[in-house]
Amino acid sequence: MWRSFLCSLVAAATLKQLNPTGTGKLVLFETNYGVDYDVVHYLVFIWLGICGGVFGGVFCRANFRWSKFFRAIPLIKNNPVLELSLVVLATALLQYPNRLIRDTGDIVMADLLADCHKPDESWLCRREADGERRAYYLWLISGTLVKLLLTVITFGCKVPSGVIIPALDAGALYGRLVGQLVPNISPGIFAMVGAAAFLAGVSRMTVSLAVIMFELTGEVNFIPPFMIAILIAKWVADAISEDGVYDLAQHLLGHPFLDTEHALARVRHARVDSGKHAVVSDLVPPNNTMEEITLYTGPEYRVRKSILQDKLAKLKSRGLLDAGLVLVNERCICHGYLPEAELEFALDAMDSGANASSSNRERRDDHLQGEVDLVGGVIAGFVDRSPLTVTAGAPVEYAVEMFGKLGLRYLIVVEEETARVIGVIIKKRLLSYLDGLK
User: Fold this and answer.
1) What one-character-per-residue DSSP string does 380-414 give?
2) Would you state the pLDDT for residue 321?
3) pLDDT reading at 188 higher than 50
4) pLDDT at position 359, please?
5) What is the SS3 assignment for 213?
């Protein structure tokens, strides 16, 4: 922790000396409204939190479906430059006509947080000083909708366009619109709170987001409104979409990310709905799959190299990088586990002569017989001799907790009476099972 603190200190001092914003301040969107909020304004903050939660929940669902549908089209999937060209065209056509969102996201955010002391300070302040604001309101509404639409179709494309600044912009646009209806207080205050609410609905951040908003604006007095809007936005967004945008992105990319608490809640809800008690044996792969990933070692714990190469080829064909081979003896008792990556590395090392530590006679005998020693040979060092096991009749919750709390990559399933291996569970198979419970 003190190392992180020291690095932050050096970074902050360097940033202050470089002064990239020209303000001499460390905050990006410095505000100084000079007024405080009243009790009645808490109702507005709550409303902004509700709207931010709706925005975040709708965004997460829409972006997930858009990514699964649009980016699965062969023409788009095989031509990422075409997708980016379409995104650029859509951005130009939708954003440029609106003066409020024509600039880059950080400039838009800074303008929306402004406190208009003088009507001629900016284009936005001049519009708010006019008596006729109908067109200005339309620009704010259309800007919010355009930001939502463009962020839905751009997040997750090949060139990262981000989600934090666009969500802040959308929230600031909506908050500025709501602020026009609240008398005797700067609308920039509600733009600031709305930005926090919309980002909370998208990302589901809570404490860290409140700190981020304080650091971005320097407004310590508005931390309670931040907290109110952020909490309500998270609750509403969770009711609409269970997962945040980053969790859904992990799922789309196929990363084996497991949220233990959500997974356990999902299993329990499924048990209540179906009335069936799911057990670990439900996660065991089919018999043909188990035959491919099971390696019978024999009484001398030696196996032909050609068998290992064939097993490795079958593992690669499945595209599961965290898979491996279960080593069993003649009684089908687990003797170890050999992950795919380690198996490939060991075979390459044997082919390139990297096993120089073995005696010349041993290497020559193994070469002549075409066998590999799983106890004293090169591969022996890559075998997990004591993989964790679970009985087939154990509840699925046991497997979820073991994967989540122990950080497992695989879990061996055995019979309760005989300890014979009947299956193996990898994290991706567990996640596939959990997805099927939705």
Assistant:
1) GGG-BSS--EEETTSBHHHHHHHHHHH--SEEEEE
2) 65
3) yes
4) 47
5) helix
